[in-house]
Structure formats: structure tokens, C-alpha cells
Amino acid sequence: MNLRTVPTQPFNDQKPGTSGLRKSVITFQQPHYLENFIQSIFDSLDDYAGQTLVVGGDGRFYNRTAIQIILKMAAANDVGRVLVGQGGILSTPAASGLIRKYQTFGGIILSASHNPGGPEGDFGVKYNISNGGPAPEKVTSAIFARSQSINQYKILEAGDVNLDRPGSFTLGTMTVDVIDSVADYSELMVSLFDFDAIRNLIAGGNFRLCMDSLHAVTGPYARAILEEQLGPPGHSAKRRAAGRFWRRSS
Questions:
Q1: Of 128, 142, 143, whose CA–CA distance to 94 is shortest?
Q2: Lesser CB count within 10 Å: N end or C end of the chain?
Q3: How large a percentage of the chain has pLDDT more than 70?
Q4: What is the percent of the chain with per-residue pLDDT over 90, rounded to a whole number?
Q5: Cα–Cα dist 103/233, whole Å
Q6: Can you tell me whether residue 72 is helix, strand or coil?
Q7: Alpha helices in the chain (DSSP H)
């Protein structure tokens, strides 16, 4: 295992809000920028060594690159296990559900919500605590304070993890479990809502449903839940921008 300690200098604009740190992709692509913020998260947490984290994002540009960096930094910082969504995909509610279901230490979620994505769009990183919710101000303030004094970060020199194949992988001494991005969230929705009643309503033929999640990552969830579980046989669906719009045609 080749562990590197990389010298760095602070950036003065890494103050996160309740929705984390949101900047342009170009800003996050600066050398050391993402690494500084991730190391500041680890440096601000207590007793996380050997614990489990959830990692995933909304699939926007830079998502996969950022996840590989985060996984290697987590391994270098003695995280015991990471649950990462297949393809690097996890919606914020799905990541929150995983944190609670598997009682993980917390999660790092890559999302800029409804902000436009793409190479010239926005990117975001936020830390959620063990109850699945966003880090409170006490935690975000500690992360920012650390980001203003950081002088090094730790990262493992290793090959990338195959995010497209579910299964368990080893990264240094850390286990990476690539899991289905939708299954646990779908199971949670079934426990919260009467799917039989909703399915009967849709099957009646007099109900139309539109879903537009703007720039979020709800497409895979819409397909799995709205279409596959709730949609009647022979339905048709139309999507805009990789599944962010769902409509049942009559």
C-alpha cells in the first residue's frame, strides 16, 4: 500500500452551508481543491477510524472522478468500509436512507441539487451525519476552520474501483461495496406508501403523472419505482434529460 501525504495550502472559499460546498466544476478541478475539502471533513470528525461511510452523487460531470479521489482518501484516512452507489449514483434521499438503514458513521454526497451541471456547470460536496441528515452548523464550521489551516492531505496511490459492477473490492485495508443505487430506497418507499393503492389508481386509466426533477438524479428512481413497480403493462414513458421527466401516456 502506497500512502502519500501531499503538501497543500488553504483555499479561502471552502465554507460549506447546510447543502454543503457548491462551486463551479472548474473550481473543483483546481489542483488540491477537492482533496483539501475532503481532508478537512476527515480532520473534523472524531472516532471515524474503522467506521463505514456512504458515498455517491447525482451523476453530474466530475462525479466519477471525485468519487475515485474520495475513496482513495478514505482508505488513506483509515475508514473501514465504504458503501458506494453503482455507477457512482445515489440521490440525496437514497444516501440518507442508506446511512440510517446500515447505521453508518455518515456519508459524503456529491450533488449541487437543481443547479445546472456539465463541464461549465456546478458541482457540490456535502457531509451527512449518522442520522442521515445534513451536517449541523457545528460540524460545517469545524470543516471550514480546518480548511483554513490545512497544510497536507492523505491519499492512497491505487487503481480506480470499478463502480459499474456490484460487489466488494479492497482498496488498501478498506472494503468498498458497490451496491444497487435504487434497491434500498425502493424498499423504503414500499414501507412508507401504499403501492397497491397507487398502482390501482394509475391502472384506472384516468390518472396522468408528470415528474420533473430538474438537474437531480431521480431518473433511475423514477424508472424503477414509477415505471417498473407502479406503471401498468404496456405503458409508455417519455423522459427529458436522462430520465428527469416521466409521463404516463394514455
A1: 128
A2: C
A3: 89
A4: 75
A5: 37
A6: helix
A7: 25-28, 33-44, 63-76, 92-101, 137-147, 183-192, 195-203, 219-221
